[in-house]
Structure formats: C-alpha cells, structure tokens
C-alpha cells in the first residue's frame, strides 16, 4: 500500500533538507572550525566574519582556487587579537599552508598547538608578546615549513637545535627578542636564504663558523648580537650573499679578503666594531 500523500510530502521535504545540508557542508567544508576560531577569539573576528556570507569572502581568508573552498591561508595581522592561546580548531583547517598572526597581542609560551597544522609552509608570529623558550621540539612543526618569523617577541633562552631539523626553511627570523643562550649549529638549513638573529642579548661568542656552510644565504643580519673575535674568511664562500650586517658588535681584526670578492654582495654594514 502506498503511503498517504502527506507522508510522501514529508519524506520528500526531509530528503531535500538532508541533501541541502550535505551540499552546504561540501561547499563550505571549513565553516565549523572557522566559526569556532571566531568564537574563541571574539572581537574583531566576531564582527568581521559574518556567517551569512561564504567564508571565502571573509576578510583575511584565502581559499583554494578549486571548487572545494578549502581554506589555505589566514592573514589576521594587526587586528588587536588579545589571547594567551591559539584555538585548537585552527589546525582543523587541514589545507592551511599560510598563517600570519603578526602585530597582535598574542602571548604565553610558544603555541605548540600549531604542531597539528601539518601542511603549514609560512608561519608569521612576529610583533606579539610571546615569552619563554623556543621549544626543543620545534621540529614538530610542519616539515613543509619554509618561513618561520618569531621576531619582535619576548622569547628567551637559546636558539635550539630543533630549528636545524626544519630543513625546508628558506627564511628564519628571530630578531628583536630576549634570546640570551647559545646559538645551535644551523648548517643543515641548506635552503636558508634569510637568517635574522639581530638585537638579541646573546652572551659573548665568536662568529659561528657554520654560517659559511649556508650556501643559499642571501641576507645575514647579526647586528648587536655580542659577536667577538675575527670575521671568518669562510664567509667569502657565500656566493649568493647580498646583504651582511654585523654592526654594533665586538668584532676585531681585518675584513677578510674573500669578503671583498663576493660578487653578489650589495650591502656590507660593520660600523661600531673593533
């Protein structure tokens, strides 16, 4: 016996609603974690991210060009976000490759929650108020990471060897912190083009000999890092180096001849040394 017309209509409506909901989820697969991030951090995201529009149109969100509408980038710089933690739901954006949280008021220890963002390539946490050491297991960050910017925070302690295990890094910026420990040997970062350690209160130490092994280096910024002793001649082997700033240190002796023969060098800044 066929069901009454009213029951048939109700079943059709429920199926339509189910299909519409499923279709909506397929069109906006990252909606739920984004709403959780918005609710976690509150203003101004609660104002900027209006759930009546598709999230790919929300400020600071970049989506893939494919029809999947997967979030690939979050640029939330200079929004006055104030928090001591990162929402765990951020790493549920499984295609996230670029994260810029610079120029906010994010604090507390290094956000190890980000270890779960396994596809990150660019991570910018600069100009915040993070404190404490850079973790000794920082290599648990994405193996795809090419840019790590931790500059202008309050990180202290050493530059850990864990950073040397992030071998895809092209740019590493740790300048303007409170780093006052040893600098690990980073010679394994063979793809590194930018190394910025400037303006940290390291203890007096000689020029790191491993720097001459960073064959891809283009920018070396070591201003006011308490360097003492001579500039090593091995620095002349950095054939791609364009800018070298080791000013405001305690370097002594001559500038090695090989430095003058570096064909790519455009900026050499060594004032206030010995």
UniProtKB/TrEMBL annotation:
Belongs to the polygalacturonase-inhibiting protein family. This is Leucine-rich repeat-containing N-terminal plant-type domain-containing protein. Keywords: Glycoprotein, Leucine-rich repeat, Repeat, Signal. The keyword Repeat applies. It holds the Pfam family LRRNT_2. Residues 29-64 form the Leucine-rich repeat-containing N-terminal plant-type domain. The keyword Signal applies. PANTHER family: OS06G0587000 PROTEIN (PTHR48059:SF30), POLYGALACTURONASE INHIBITOR 1 (PTHR48059). Residues 1-24 form the signal peptide. Its main location: other. InterPro entries: Leu-rich_rpt, LRR_dom_sf, LRR_N_plant-typ, PGIP.
């Amino acid at each position: 016996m066929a069901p009454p017309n009213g029951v048939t209509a109700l079943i059709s409506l429920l199926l339509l609603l189910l299909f519409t909901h499923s279709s909506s989820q397929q069109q906006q697969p990252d909606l739920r974690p984004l709403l959780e991030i918005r609710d976690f951090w509150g203003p101004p995201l609660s104002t900027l991210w209006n759930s009546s529009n598709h999230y790919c149109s929300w400020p600071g969100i970049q989506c893939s060009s494919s029809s999947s509408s997967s979030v690939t980038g979050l640029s939330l710089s200079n929004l006055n976000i104030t928090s001591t933690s990162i929402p765990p739901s951020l790493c549920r954006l499984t295609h996230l490759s670029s994260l810029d949280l610079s120029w906010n008021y994010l604090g507390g220890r290094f956000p190890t929650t980000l270890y779960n963002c396994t596809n990150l390539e660019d991570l910018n946490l600069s100009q915040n108020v993070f404190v404490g050491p850079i973790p000794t297991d920082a290599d648990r960050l994405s193996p795809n990471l090419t840019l790590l910017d931790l500059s202008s925070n309050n990180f202290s302690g050493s530059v850990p060897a864990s950073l040397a295990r992030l071998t895809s890094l092209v740019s590493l910026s740790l300048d303007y912190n409170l780093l006052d420990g040893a600098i690990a040997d980073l010679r394994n970062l063979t793809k590194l083009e930018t190394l910025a350690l400037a303006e940290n209160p390291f203890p007096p130490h000689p020029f790191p000999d491993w720097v001459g092994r960073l064959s891809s280096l283009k920018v070396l910024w070591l201003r006011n890092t308490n360097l003492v002793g001579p500039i090593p001649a091995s620095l002349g082997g950095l054939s791609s180096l364009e800018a070298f700033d080791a000013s405001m240190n305690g370097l002594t002796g001559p500038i090695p001849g090989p430095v003058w023969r570096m064909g790519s060098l455009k900026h050499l800044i060594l004032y206030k040394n010995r």
